[in-house]
Amino acid sequence: MNVHLDEIIGWIDRAFGNEPAVYDCAVPDGVETLRSLLGDEGYQRYQRDQVNRQIIRDYLTNAVVLGIISEGGLAAFAAPLSSEEGRSTLALYMLMSAVEDAAALPPVCGELEVLKPLEPQPGDRSHIKLVPR
């Protein structure tokens, strides 16, 4: 089996579509201006999307290299990859799943559900407990 990583990564990058513009205007000089721009919600959204793209790119590339999904199977991921919300949801699914489970992800075996923010409920919250060896 021949795997062409550059073709796989190229396909994934094309499926993402255009990257959102960080800013539509030139950055004026000045450290304070730069700080305010980098703290801007638009830039933060851009950064989140870049992280999601990297998670998806690495996950799908590994899944193809390991033979979990075929290069042709990447087409099942095209729809969620093309939107920011789809990438955000898919990246979360991928973070919570082993690469070996790639064929069981919603774009392959079902529909990707839109994520909703959780609302804290009153009462005892779950706690992480470290278990000593």
What does this structure look like?
It is built from six helices and no strands. The chain has helices at 5-16, 31-38, 41-65, 78-81, 84-95, 106-109. The mean pLDDT is 79. The chain has 133 residues and is mostly helical.
Condensed summary:
With 133 residues, the chain is mainly alpha-helical. The chain is built from six helices and no strands.
Characteristics of this structure?
133 residues, globular, 0% strand, 49% helix, mainly alpha
Which regions are unreliable across 5 or more consecutive residues at pLDDT < 50?
A: none
The ordered H/E elements are HHHHHH
DSSP summary: helix tally? 6
Q: What is the average of the pLDDT values? A: 79
Estimate the helix proportion, in percent.
Answer: 40-55%
Kindly estimate the percentage of residues that lie in beta strands according to DSSP.
under 5%
Distance between the termini: 42 Å
Question: Helices and strands in order, then pairings?
Answer:
Layout: H1 5-16, H2 31-38, H3 41-65, H4 78-81, H5 84-95, H6 106-109
Helix pairs in contact: 1-3, 3-5
